[in-house]
Amino acid sequence: MTKEDNRKERRSWWMQFLISVIGTAIGVGLTFAVSNRLENRKKEQAQRLTAMMVIHDIDESIERVKSMKDDMEQQYNATIYAMSHLDQMESLSYDTLVLVLAYILEEDEAFSFDTSKEKIFHSSPDTWQNLGSMKFIDNVQSFYFNRQSFLETYNKSVYWKRPVSSREYEEIYVYDESLSVDQYKDLYYSQLREFLKEKLTETSVQHYINYAAWRLYMATRMIADWIKINNENKFLMSITDEELEAYVNSINKTGFALKEEDLIGKWSITSSDDRNVDWEFGNDHTITIVSHQLINANMPFAKGKLEVHYSLKGTWAIEGDSLIHTVEWDTYEPGVDGSGMSALPGRQDMLDDWLEEYNESLLEYKRNNSGRKERNAYGACLDASRDKMEIKIMAPDEKGEIKLEVAYLKRKK
Fold it and tell me: What gap in Å lies between CA 316 and CA 280, rounded to an integer?
């Protein structure tokens, strides 16, 4: 081999080596570049999820205060109306009396917010680092501080504390063994009217009412401040209303879609130790609903637990992710069991009459609904075991406002 051939061979070897080194360097570079992009993408996703979690928490707090403010306004208006009709209290409806009582009677529990998301936000410094915007972090910190300050003021300030104690209210209960049920109701309403008439003239109650405008102002300002903070938060983090709606839908939607074969059988809803409802889904798309409820019934003539039960029949179907059942009120079979109650001495006849009247009122309800069919649609899904089911329905609450209700059923083996 000539010297020229040797030089060509060495040059070819070095060229191949250089290409190999460059190729390896490019490959390593691409690997790091892809890895960095994936890591950055994960951080960006974590950042947006954390931001949306907090923004949603602020939105829910706003709605909580709005609901409280609406209740205060409704109760205040009823109270002012009652104060202007002190001499005609007997003409006021029971609903009005209840609103007035709710306005001035001390609350059983302290006002509160769900703090789980706040705890998550404060749980790790990494959460803050991922957010990227110091202004956003400052806004969130300010909001949580402001919310806690509002809670302390609401639950401790004399300007928020309702002036009538539960002990005072309990004194209007009359336990007269000689009264019938209707007589007892009439007496209670009469006593309630007299009680409110007296309380509405007391200095402490009038002082509380005089600060109504201040309380409404504080609530209104709080709502406005929090809305302003959250609008800025959405802008800072470039989060659209559509993104936030998708996030809310994603956290509200869990589990697996219903299938007919998974539904067949008996399911039970246990909302408390004193209430149980069974739903039995048949292969022929029939449904039977059976409810048992124990009620503490401390009456002027008897004490103990009253069992109220009923059964209903109908049909069921699955439409998309909704469970539909239609019940026929002609199949309604109610019943009252007073075996868990004890009559006071000499009052067994009164207890028997009351139980008979109670049962008759349930039968009257059946007669009034004769021929009626009621269709209910529930958002429903199953967990991984297929033995637990979540159902959601929009239903009116005690005030007639439409709210989302959620219940969980467990398969009965």
Answer: 10
pLDDT tens column, 306-334: 899 999 999 999 988 789 989 999 999 99
Residue of 63, 65, 70 whose CA lies nearest to 399: 70
- Please give the pLDDT value at position 34: 40
CA distance 70 to 165: 23
Stated pTM of the model:
0.58
> At 125, is the pLDDT very low, low, confident or very high (cuts 50, 70, 90)?
low
**Whole-number average pLDDT of the chain:** 82
- For residue 267, give its domain range: 260-412
User: Is 244 found in the same domain as 279?
Assistant: no
What CA–CA distance (Å, rounded) separates 375 from 356? 31
Q: How many structural domains is the chain composed of?
A: 2
Gyration radius of the chain over CA positions? 33
